[in-house]
Specification:
- With 213 residues, the chain is an alpha+beta fold.
- The chain has 2 domains: 60 residues; 136 residues, no CATH class.
- A 4-stranded antiparallel β-sheet has the order 1-2-3-4, with no helix packed on it.
- A hairpin with a 5-residue loop joins β3 and β4.
- The chain starts with 15 loop residues before the first strand and ends in a 12-residue tail after the last helix.
């Protein structure tokens, strides 16, 4: 689980409370899961009713991140939609963020597989991601339990139950992948262009050009 306030990752507890009275059926059984962030002390409350997935009910979700203009519009639009729908439905947010993650893997990395789990594994096999980002992406695969829910990879808009903390984690990973795939590459390109201008002013060939003998 990641704290919605300070973004610190920690292991959630098993502090669940069931809410049931004589007028509530098993389908309407409410279960509350609560934690306290060990870093900032924020209380985190998730709620599940009946067979529905977990919904973050406290603290309120606010806008997470102003994405760089280097991130292509289709990706940040999907990301913002997943963020904006999170207060109303964690399941809907999870479906949107998973779709965005799959789209990024297929279009940017060119790795289309049968399931999202297989696609994540293919990205990790490239060994091109920074170690921490790779570990976080692997955690998405494990926490999401995609092998048990193969339909999660289909672009049908299907809403599937989520684990506590999964939605926030996928959004965190998307932010990291956006930075790696788009922001850092643009920054590196600008650094090369700046250096080439300096080399040109000094009468030297640009980077990658054949060196004079």
């Amino acid at each position: 689980m990641k704290c919605p306030k300070c973004r610190t990752a920690f292991h959630e507890t098993d502090e669940n409370v069931q809410v049931l009275n004589d007028y509530v059926t098993s389908e309407e059984l409410a279960e509350v899961h609560y934690d306290r962030c060990p870093e900032c002390g924020q209380v985190i409350v998730n709620l599940a009713i009946g067979r529905g997935g977990w919904e973050l009910v406290y603290p309120p979700v606010h806008q997470r991140l102003d994405l760089s203009e280097s991130v292509p519009a289709p990706y940040w639009q999907d990301y913002l939609e997943a963020v904006n729908v999170l207060p109303a439905s964690s399941k809907a947010s999870a479906a949107l963020s998973r779709r965005c993650l799959q789209r990024l893997i297929r279009e940017h990395f060119g790795l289309g597989k049968k399931t999202l789990e297989q696609e994540i594994a293919a990205v990790l096999a490239l060994q091109s991601l920074p170690s921490q980002l790779a570990a976080d992406l692997d955690a998405v695969r494990v926490v999401g339990n995609f092998a048990a829910h193969p339909m999660k990879n289909l672009e049908t808009g299907e809403v599937i139950d989520v684990e506590p903390g999964e939605v926030e984690w996928v959004l965190d990973v998307l932010e990291g992948l956006f930075d790696f795939c788009f922001v850092q590459s643009v920054q590196a390109q600008r650094r090369r262009e700046d250096l080439n201008r300096k080399l040109e002013a000094a009468g030297k060939p640009p980077l990658g050009a054949p060196q004079p003998h």
